[in-house]
From TrEMBL:
InterPro entries: HDACs, His_deacetylse_dom, His_deacetylse_dom_sf, Ureohydrolase_dom_sf. One of its GO terms (cellular component) is cytoplasm. This is Class II histone deacetylase. Residues 23-304 form the Histone deacetylase domain. It comes from Emcibacter nanhaiensis. The lineage of its organism: Bacteria, Pseudomonadati, Pseudomonadota, Alphaproteobacteria, Emcibacterales.
Amino acid sequence: MWHDTGTHAGVLPAGNPIQPGTHAESPETKRRFKNLLEVSGLYEQLLQIAPRPATDEEILRVHTPDYIDRLKAESASPRGGDGGMLTPFGPGSYEIAALSAGGVIAAVDAVLDGKADNAYALVRPPGHHAEPDMGMGFCLLANAAIAGRHALEARGLERIAYVDWDVHHGNGTQKVFWEDPQALTISIHQDRNFPPDSGFMSDIGGGAGEGYNINVPLPAGSGVGAYEATFERVVLPALRAFKPDLIFVPSGFDAGAHDPLGRMMMHGEGYRSLTNKLLTVADELCDGRIVMSHEGGYNAPTVPFFGLAVMEALSGIKTEVEDPFMPLFSGMGGQELQPHQEQLISEAERLIERL
Ligand SMILES: [Zn+2]
């Protein structure tokens, strides 16, 4: 919560002709997610996994030395710095980012060591936009990719898969594993939201990794029906074909209805449903091993309920809390799969044949 993104108007820095206030990526959604876990009584029933900072060696499996040196120098300055496109940070943010990446590593170790069946790393700053040589979209270090490299190189796994349901394209994860057949990277995102001109279905990986990157750029306005169909027809068959030893979920809740940085209509029961589908396939393939790492989600009142639904599904514990947004969101027009979304999903189905 100490990672300081500064005073901005949404994502715009001070100096633009609009009054600056809280940056779009602030502690609020994350803090309230944790608060709701506590209020619901779920938090005290969960195993707490202490994060630790990722080491330089772990971070350098993904990032370039020049980029890390620059981040460290700017983080040591009283003014802070900027990781890259739209990624401002304050003093000390490098150390916090190392803790964020290390939190996902600790979650991986807890699951691989059998201490937890699955894990959710509620970490900040997020990671899925960060590329090897630059930060991007509020992400300094590629948390889930760093943890994935740890799983492959330090823990000896043979295959890992990513199912990124953040509303924005998981460009960083795609780039890190572009030529790597050991990692299946799947991103379900809003078509050309962020980064601009990224996340096309034709981007399938390169070299030895060709065929191991799947992008499903859903049209703006997609609801729970489109997401469930994408999972049933693309994500689950792809996972069954690839047979990962561990499934990562870069988990942004910005595909939720009312999110300021997305234009989708997911709701709490939708996230619960997607989580249950992943749990079923994870039980079949890899002893239920799923590690989720927190990414985006910018509407402070709704994100906690999406998160609680996911945590209830992961833990198998249903709390007494009723999601007060469900009547509002489930009744929105277009929640069912629409013909133009169906067409896109049919095209994406063909990508599985390459696996
Ligand atoms: Zn996002």
